[in-house]
Amino acid sequence: MAPERENGRERTPAGATATTRSRGPRLDQPRPPRRRLLPEWDPEAFGRLSERIARFLGTGRFIVWMTIVIILWVLWNIAAPGRLRFDEYPFIFLTLALSLQASYAAPLILLAQNRQDDRDRVNLEQDRKQNERSIADTEYLTREIAALRMGLGEVATRDWIRSELQDLLKEMDERRHGQVVFPTERSAGRDVDDR
Fold it and tell me: How many Å apart are CA 184 and CA 186, to the nearest integer?
């Protein structure tokens, strides 16, 4: 779009029709990825690998294999001919190898323990929420059972309805035969007639 002339001056377009000027990086678009000097790794994959290594380091198999390697190392460097020995008596290279193994094993074990702590914390939180729901459900059911018991106290039972119907039948029979029954007489003679 060409700039317009207005009163002898050039007018530059503004707004949505304005041409874009290069003022630096655009804020509406993501930055292009940078090259990194250090390698990238997936923290989850690294964590799983450290857990597997820590799990192996905590087994009897690892201790047996490490013991066998150390015994063979010492026997080789004591009994082998002089020119085939690679680590003489103070076994400095063996000490270095064991120190290196320990320096890597300790952080890997700590990383695995931290991941296990995180999993335990999540499981504990889920268990706590489940317990709260169970307690709430139990309290609700307890209230419902109490309400049902109170409601059942007001419900007419089968025996009570039967006795009332029998009393009414007896009263109707007596009225039909011309006898007047007082309520005290009816309740006193009820046991004999019910049989």
Answer: 5
